[in-house]
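Two records follow; treat each independently.
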Amino acid sequence: MKKFLSAILIAAFVFGGGAVEAKSLWVDNGGGISLYSDKKARNVGDILTIVINETTTQTATKSRSNSKSGSVSVGTGTGIFDFIKAFSASGSDAFKADGSAVDTNRYSGQITVTVVEVLPNDNMIIEGTQSIWQNRDEHKITLRGVIRRDDVSMNNTVLSTRVADATLKFDGKGPLNAKQRQGILTQIFNFLF
């Protein structure tokens, strides 16, 4: 019986290819990521979340004024100019305008974006769009910018204040958004005046 088992093992080794391959319990990642490192976005196609927390305030105050005045007087004519009667004239013009405007905007939320390019200095260009539909109204957020790899937190998020060359666009369309725009006549009057 022992000879028979030995013959089967030798035949399996000879005819089975002979190569024995050991399998690891850990996933082979090609040595790119350590077992102890975080899984942060670092390559094209990786995704991460941008935490939007932006506040903008604009204040403008303008004041303009100008004035001018003038007067003229002519005495009575003599001799051949005795038909000229004495008269005087004066005039003045004044203009004053004051205006002020305060505009405060606050945006908060989150948008998940994709790494579209990794620059030679390891900075990453990110881009993403989020579209939310509610009652036939679309609310759309588009974000594009450059982030540093060091600014990506352990939970794979980046603050919007850390995005360089950021373009953050909020847009919408639908019945509600259409009612918030000025009408055609108002736009024409604003253009003319």
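The next record belongs to a different protein.
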Amino acid sequence: MKNILTEMHVKALFEQYYIALVEFSWHIVKCRDTASDIVQDTFVKVLERLEELPSQEKALKSYLYSSVRNISLNHIRHQKIADGYQKSNEWNEMDETYILDAMIYAETVNNLHKAIKTLPKSCQEVCKLTYLEGKSNSEAAELCGVSINTIKTQKRRSVELLRHRLAPIFHSLKAFVLFFFG
């Protein structure tokens, strides 16, 4: 059943799936800026087709991933032609396993970012600086204006909270892997 989406709903979808879709596209095109552009283009197309899109969350998510995958693959094809590397019969489509791996990775990164946003502000900051930006404990301590021991304590606290919040997701992923590959 089709339903008219609102621009506010599309904005909420953008905020919900942007990180995951960029990660997914990045696995295909290997360029963060291009992946970001592809995701933004996808949402522009969504805005242009508000009346045509399904209203169900899972169908929209599937539509977004399919659109990003297709635009990413088209980008690669175009690059190969533009760079003069494409030869007849040499182009191999990315196999579905790689695409599935990229999607799982993107969802995992998205869930991690969501979980980090639920942490107390001090833990969020320490996680972003040390784990996502790769800063050392001393660099993070200097940037936050606290001691190194405070950074270490915040990191331990963050990991414990994240482990608790992400446990259901990892159990589901583990069950999925065992079901299909065990």
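Discussion point: The chain has two domains: 1-93, 118-182. How would you locate this feature using only the token line?
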